[in-house]
Each structure stands twice: as C-alpha cells, then as structure tokens.
Design goal:
heterodimer; A: mainly alpha; two-stranded antiparallel ribbon; 21 helices; globular; B: mainly alpha; 19 helices; 76% helix
C-alpha cells in the first residue's frame, strides 16, 4: 500500500462531511457512518503495515519550516483505528430523528479527521493545528446540542484546553528556535535541548519548554488537578459527542505525553517524571472516590474516565518499559470501554427519562440483552483478568512497582475502588426490584446492539489474546525508551 | 516613477469622484461607489504591473516617497480593503438615510493618505499621509449626524487625533533639530552617533513620534478614544478605519522604527516594548467586560495592536515578514468582523449586543458561520489565518530573544479566548422558543464581502504559502 493510504485515512471523513451538503438530512447519519467505516478500513490497512510504518512528507511552507508529514506506526495506528470505530459507532448511536442532523454529523466527522491528523502528524505545527481543530467542533456541538448549562460547559472546555495549547505553542516555538529555526518536524527536533540557565524559580529554558507541553497534555487528558472542565463538559455533551470526546479526543493528552514529551524531550521528562506520576496516582484514587459519590450515572462514568486516565498517565510518565507499553494498550482499551459505558448511560436515560441511580433499578428484567453486554463492559472496567482492562492495568502496576511503592499502593487502591464503582453502577441499574414500568420494552434497539456488540467483542478479544497488539506497542515503546 | 502609478491612480479617482458627486442626483449616490470602484480596480491592477524587481531602489521626489515592494504590498491591501468597503457601504447608507456623496469622496481621500503613509520615507510625507487619512476619518466618524453617539465619536476622534498630530509634529521638529535631517534613513544613521543636547533632542523626538504613531495604531496607553469612536462611528467606517488606520500606522512603525531606526534599537525598544505589553493586557482585560460587539472588537483591536508591535520589536527579516503577514491577516479578519456588524446593524440600533447574536449561526449559517470564523481567527486558533499570523510573529519574537514579551502575548491570548469564544457560543446556542429576534434581510453584496473575507481567513490558515511569499517580497525595504 502506498502513502495515499495515509491521506485516505485522514481525509475520508472530511470528504464525507463536505458531501453532507448534497444529501437530505435523513441520510446524513448513514453517510457519516459510511465515511467513518471507509476511514476505518484504510486505518486498518495502514496499521497492518505498522512494522514498516508508512510515511509521507511534503513541503507545507518551506520558508517557515512547516512540513506536511504524516506517519502511522503501531501507536498511532491503533488509536486512529479506535477513532474511526468510535466515531462510526457514535454516529450509529445518534437518535434517528435528531434535529440539525447534518450539522451534528458534519462536526463529528471533522473531529474524526482532526483527531486522526493529530495522531499521525509528524510535524509540531501540523500536530498543533489538528490538536486544536479536534476540539473546536466538540465545542460547537456542546453549545448547540448540549443539555443544561451547555454554553458555560462548552466555553469552559475550550478555554481550559486552549490555555494549555497556548503554553504548548510557546514551547513548540522555543524548541524550534533551539533546534536551529529550520524545521518543525519531529525527526529534526527529537532530542533538541533548549539551552539557557535558570529563569523562573531555578527552572531552565528546557524545563519551562517541557512544562509548556506537559500543561497542554495534562489538561487534555485530564490529569488531576487540571480536570476542572471534565464534569461540566461530559455532563452537558450529548451521548455521541461524549463518546467521541471521552473515547478518543481526550486520548490525545496521553498520546502527546508519549509522542511529543517523551519523543522529543526524553531527558527533561525524566526529571519531571516523579511529579507527573504522583499526579496520575492521585487522579486514580480521586476519580474513583468521586465516581462512588455520584448519583448521576453519566457523571459517575465521567469520573471513572478520570480515574482511568490517571492510570494511563501513570504508566506513560513512569518511563518504564512495562508501564509505557501497558499504558499504550490501555489507551485503546479505555477508549473502547468508556465509549460503551457512555452509550449505556445514554440508553438508560433515553428509556428511563432519568440518569439518577437512586431512581433506576432492576432494568435487567426488561433488558436482558443490555444487561449481558453491560456486564461484560463493567467487568472490563474493573479490570477482570481475561477482559481487556486487565492487560493494561496489570502492566502499568508492574511498571510502577519498579519506581515507587507509595504510588503503587495508591494505584492498587484504585483497582480495588474500580471493582466497587463498576459493580455499584451495574447493580444499581440492572439488579434489584424492577420499577413499576418494568413491562415496557427497555432493551437495546437494533442500532444499540450495533453500537455495543463490536465494543464488547473488542473487550473480550483483547482480553483473551492481547499479544499481537501488546508486542507491537511494546516494541515501539522500547525504541523510544532506549535513549534514556 | 511607474511604481508610484497606483498612488496617482487613486489621486485621480479622488478628483473624479469629487467632481462626479455634483452631477449625480440625490438618492443615486451608489453610482459614485461604482466610479470609485473602477478607479481602485485600475490602481490595484497597476500595483501588480508596477511591482519593481526585488531590491531595486525606488525613491522619488527627492527621496521622500518610495515605490518599493513594501509600499506596494500595503497599497494592494488598502485597495482591497477599500473595494470591500465600497461593496459593503451602499446598502448600509441607504438603510441609515445617510446616502451622501461625500462619503465616497472621503473614503478615497483617506485611502490615499494610507497609501502615502506606507510609501513615506521622509518625516514630512509621513505627516502628510497621517493627516490625509485622519482628517477624512474625523468626518466619516461623525457621518451619522443625527445620532449623538456618532457626533461624539467624530468630535472625540478629532480632539484626540489633533493631540496626537501635535505630538507627532513636535517630535519630528525635535528630530530635525537633533539630527539636521528629515529623511528617515539619514536620521537613522545619525541617531546612534549623537552627543550632548542633540542626542537629548533627537531621543525626545523619537519618543514623541512613537507616541504619535502609537495613538494612530490605538496602542495602550494611547487607546482611550478607540472604544467610543468604534461604538459611535458608522459600522462600515469602523470596518475601514479599524483595519486601514492601524495597518498603515504599524506599517509606518515597521518602515521607520524596525527599518530605518534599527541602528538605534536600544533607544526606543524599551518604550515600544512597554507600549506593546500594555496594549496586549489592557486590550484583553478591557474586552472581557464588554457586552456589545463593536466595543468588544475595539478593545480586541487594542490587544491586536500589541501583537503587531511585537513584530516591530522583533525586527530584522523575520520580524518584517511576520509583521507583513500578520497585518494582512489582521486586515481580513477584522474587516470581516466589522462587516458582519454592518450587516446586522439596524436603524436606531448602531451597536450589536452579544446577547442578540443568539442562534444567528443556526438561522443564518453564512453570516453566523463567517463571524465564528473571524472570532476563532482573532483568538488565534487553527485552522485559521489568525493562528498562522500569531505563529510567525511569536517565532520572530522568540528568535529575537523577546521571550518575556512573548509570554505576555501568550497570557493576553489566553484571556482573549473568553471574549472571542463567548461570541461563538452565543452564535450557536439556540434561542429560547418565541424569543428569536426577527431576521431581517441581509444585504447580498455585503454578504459577498463577508464571504470573501471568511474564505481568505480560512484558506490562508490552511495554505499560508502564497501570502508568506508576498510578505517575503514586501519585506525588502
């Protein structure tokens, strides 16, 4: 396969978004799903070549050092595939008669292109452009289609993340100038170390540059204590949007830690690793405790996501072979699990008219199919061996083991709490006495089955046989860590 | 001499439009827009024909006016701007009942002033350019004669502008006294090697000229007039002046300070750095509290002046290229934003409260979407031209060792996210049922201008190459 595959992965959703102008609103969703699936096909093709990554580089603006360079290795490929899959499923999850369907589908497709772009870009400015572009449509989607204080939530989300992005922009330019002011490409800037002594509080230019990157990634992830936007945005976002936002777009944070922070500034990252690890470990426990306190199912899932992202960050910033490999796998797993969880929450709200745990119980009787699929997802979330959540978490714990006993203890505590919050959610919704309206059909629709079955299949397949994915990602992590 | 032909063409257009005004009957003044438009298109064509070979010395009238690619770059920009304003204006003037011929005459006169200013290489021509552009604008700001806000705008602009001209002229006199020259290149050469009283005079002169130009570019702390004038003046005039005046003044900064006075950098960099930092912060913080789009954009333009001055301070080839690039980008996005304001303004309601924009992006996808593009671009977010402009300016600044000022710019940009994106949220938040404001017919000509500006803003953000090359050519002083 030639380099054109990369362009196809990147631009198929965008082309579909443009074609939306030409179809009736009723077919917008179908076109969007088709576009995402075609992109998924190309992503799989590109991923299959990950051992010898496809790469493409063209001049964007030579005089300013901008390159249009793309490449798909295992890490990028697995996440791009996840991106295309989750977007396709999110579109399936859209209500059939959604208002302003074309706008909604179109913005989700733009997000898909931008997220893929950020994942396969190999030039810092190109990365930055896609990174920001991935969020703008989400911002508008929440403002238009959200619930509750949507304007506030949308604004909070974008201001939080864009503040981080501005810090990153400063870091990008500093790195570029330090690298001889000739190119923004990753290959050129890898290992460049901005000189300059202590500036602020004894921090050198290299430290400040790294912190600029780290701030952007930590906000996007989000890493405790920069998660202020999370609860409002996740609660306000409609189900398809939150599936994409939590499932894929937020993955750009840990991906940035891996690709940019570790890839370009490994030595400086080593210095900041303990601090970031601590924040990750606190996030695990904090997210888990907050998840236990929520009555709103969607908010509980939002905090579960925060806890999981803490795990992923802990693995990546720990800079151990096992931890980084585990985190890379876990990024994929988390995307699958959290998208499924948010779908379940959306479905429950649609049939019950509420998301309050206190007011829903016993849905399993009226919805056996949903209960079965949800059970697998919940067990995957709590990290049951044999399902996908276990693989990544186990390796992250293994990696943390060699770094710090204290953090290992916190993370292990998070695993215990995970069992609690997962089962609390499952039991609260599915078990117990059915409500008086148990007679009505509350089980999944066909569309709902189409959303959940592929995700559950991935939960099981990766749980049972993670080796191909894990080996590929571990090898790539090993190459990046070798410079330390 | 051929490279001055655009100037002559515009001067000719000015005379023709003024004469034609006496023959065109009341109520048909739109014909003047057509006449002016033809003249400006000819001038624009001449810019491209007249472009001198790179690096060729092109000074005329005893070295007081340059016909170099720097001047031509900006002249093309001003011609495009004025053409767009001509497209935008007739419907607005009819709507507000001020369809007078002087409007077009003054517009072209002001354009001529801008074109002279960017070509000026002598203190005298700098002053003539500034006065020509300003005096026309004083009148235009008060053109809505029946409205108090517009009268206030005209008077305030006249008084404050008169002060600034005084500063500028006094500074020029001191510079001449200190260095014995009015030619900016000669002054630049002599500035570094002055002693005694002459040095004091000359440096005071530099400071006063800086203040005068900072006033024209509405940089803090000389910005106080901006919000009131922008709020009161007719919307298309604001679209014209917010771009034209600022771009011309910053271009003068680039030519005079970053270009000719570069040797005396240490004498003015601290002062200009303070002005730049103050503009960014004052503009950003001031805009936070505005609930009216025109006032908000006024403060935003103060902050943008700060970013533009960053390019002047960076200096050198990078500073000039990034300055030219960002100025062009600033022109497209700011014109576009005020053009949308023009389309939305209705009789008896010159301003556009941000609340009234609710749902506009859903009801009027073109106008609302375009305004969203301009806001995102002003905020400096990709994939718009505003991002590329900021990227290049910051790159030049960091490359020149201005890390601290760039940090201020980043902080100001972070603050600015709120007030720009708040507008986008309003645009895309569906209004409450029954509370949607009536949708008036939007002028199709104006929509064309808005659409063109939005398209350029997006295209330059994705393909910055062509404009960057033009800026590179234009940066050869």
């Amino acid at each position: 396969m030639s380099e054109w595959t990369l362009l196809a992965v990147l631009f198929t959703p965008l082309v579909a978004a443009i074609l939306l102008f030409r179809v009736p609103a009723g077919q917008a969703r179908a076109l969007g799903v088709a576009g995402s699936l075609v992109a998924l096909f190309f992503a799989v093709v590109a991923f299959a070549e990950a051992a010898h990554p496809l790469a493409l580089s063209a001049s964007w603006l030579d005089a300013a050092g901008l390159n249009f360079s793309l490449s798909v290795d295992g890490v990028s490929g697995s996440l791009v595939g996840l991106n295309c899959l989750v977007t396709a499923l999110a579109l399936v999850a859209m209500p059939a008669a959604a208002p302003r369907a074309r706008l909604q589908v179109g913005l989700l497709l733009v997000t898909e292109t931008a997220t893929s772009g950020a994942l396969i870009a190999r030039d810092l400015v190109l990365f930055f452009v896609f990174w920001e572009l991935a969020l703008l449509p989400i911002f508008i989607l929440i403002a238009v289609f959200g619930e509750g204080r949507r304007g506030y939530a949308a604004l909070k989300l974008i201001i939080y993340t864009s503040c981080g992005s501005l810090a990153m922009l400063l870091a990008i330019i500093t790195l570029y100038v330090a690298g001889g002011a000739s190119s923004f490409s990753f290959a050129h800037l890898a290992g460049v170390r901005p000189g300059g002594g202590a500036l602020l509080g004894g921090l050198g230019v290299a430290d400040l540059t790294f912190l600029g990157f780290a701030l952007a990634f930590a906000i996007k992830t989000p890493l405790f204590p920069l998660h202020g936007w999370l609860a409002d945005a996740y609660r306000a976002a409609p189900t398809p949007v939150v599936m994409v936002l939590a499932g894929v777009v937020s993955k750009l944070g840990p991906y940035g830690f891996y690709r940019v922070a570790l890839g370009l500034m490994p030595a400086t990252m080593q210095r900041w690793s303990p601090l970031l690890m601590t924040l990750g470990a606190i996030g695990i426990v904090y997210g888990a405790l907050m998840a236990l306190r929520q009555d709103d199912v969607k908010l509980a899932i939002a905090y579960i996501s925060l806890s999981h992202m803490g795990f992923i960050t802990l693995g990546i910033v720990g800079l151990t072979q096992a931890g980084v490999s585990g985190a890379l796998v876990q990024m994929f797993n988390h995307g699958v699990l959290i998208a499924a969880l948010f779908y379940v929450s959306g479905h429950v709200e649609a049939v019950k008219g509420t998301r309050s745990l206190a007011r829903i119980s016993g849905m399993a009787r009226g919805a056996p199919g949903l209960a079965a699929l949800f059970l697998v997802v919940a067990l995957g979330t709590l990290g049951l061996p044999g399902l996908n959540g276990f693989v990544g978490e186990y390796m992250i714990l293994l990696g943390t083991f060699t770094r710090s006993w204290l953090l290992l203890g916190l993370a292990a505590g998070g695993v215990v709490l995970a069992a609690w919050y997962s089962l609390r959610l499952y039991q609260g919704l599915m078990n117990g006495p059915p409500g008086e309206d148990s007679g009505q059909r509350v089980d999944l629709t066909t569309a709902g089955a189409w959303v959940l079955v592929p995700l559950v299949a991935l939960v099981i397949v990766i749980g049972v046989y993670p080796a191909p994915l894990l080996n590929l990602l571990a090898a790539e992590a090993g190459r990046l860590l070798a410079v330390l | 001499m051929f490279s001055l032909s655009p100037l002559f063409a515009v001067a000719g257009t000015f005379l023709v439009v003024m004469l034609a005004d006496t023959f065109v009957p009341e109520g048909r003044k739109v014909r003047l827009a057509w006449i002016a438009g033809v003249g400006l298109v000819v001038a624009l064509a001449l810019v491209f024909v007249a472009a001198p070979p790179a690096g060729a010395a092109a000074q005329f009238f005893n070295g007081t006016v340059a016909g170099d690619s720097f001047a031509l770059f900006f002249q093309a920009l001003f011609l495009l701007l004025t053409l767009a304003v001509l497209v935008l204006s007739p419907a607005y003037l009819r709507r507000r009942g001020i369809d007078h011929g002087e409007y077009y005459v003054l517009l072209v006169a002001s354009l001529l002033g801008m074109m002279v200013l960017v070509a000026a290489t002598n203190l005298m021509t700098v002053f003539i350019g500034i006065e020509l552009l300003s005096i026309s604008l004083y009148v235009l700001s008060g053109f809505l004669r029946s409205e108090e806000a517009s009268q206030e705008a005209g008077l305030k602009y006249l008084l404050m502008g008169g002060f600034a001209s005084g500063f500028l002229l006094y500074g020029m006199a001191l510079l001449y006294g200190g260095t014995g020259a009015t030619d900016i290149v000669t002054i630049g050469h002599r500035l570094g090697s002055l002693h005694g009283d002459n040095a004091v005079f000359a440096l005071a002169g530099v400071a006063l000229v800086l203040v005068g130009l900072a006033f024209k570019s509405s940089a803090a702390p000389f910005h106080a007039w901006t919000p009131d004038v922008y709020q009161g003046a007719p919307a298309p005039v604001v679209a014209f002046m917010s771009v034209g005046t600022k771009v011309a003044a910053i271009a003068a900064f680039l030519r005079v300070f970053a270009g000719s006075f570069a040797a005396a950098y240490s004498h003015w960099s601290l002062l200009l750095g303070a002005v730049a930092a103050a503009s960014m912060l004052v503009g950003a913080v001031g805009a936070l509290r505005q609930d009216e789009l025109k006032r908000m954009l006024a403060y935003s333009s103060i902050a943008q002046a700060g970013y533009l001055l960053l390019a002047v301070l960076a200096g050198g080839q990078q500073g000039l290229v990034s300055g030219l690039f960002f100025l062009a980008v600033y022109g497209f996005m700011t014109f576009g934003a005020f053009a949308v304001v023009t389309l939305l303004s209705r009789a008896g309601r010159e301003g556009v409260p941000i609340q009234s924009l609710r749902g506009l992006g859903l009801r009027e996808p073109l106008a609302g979407g375009a305004l969203a593009v301009f806001m995102i671009s002003l905020a400096g977010l990709p994939p718009t031209a505003g991002f590329m402009g900021k990227l290049f300016v910051f790159r030049a600044a960091i490359g020149a060792g201005l890390g601290g000022l760039t940090l201020v710019a980043i902080v100001a940009s972070a603050i600015s996210l709120y007030y720009y994106l708040r507008v986008v949220v309003a645009l895309f938040t569906p209004g409450e049922a029954g509370q949607e404001p009536e949708v008036a017919e939007l002028d199709p000509w104006g929509m064309g201008a808005v659409g063109a500006a939005a398209t350029l803003t997006l295209l330059i953000g994705i393909f910055p190459g062509l404009l960057y090359q033009l800026a590179q050519r234009g940066s050869l002083l």
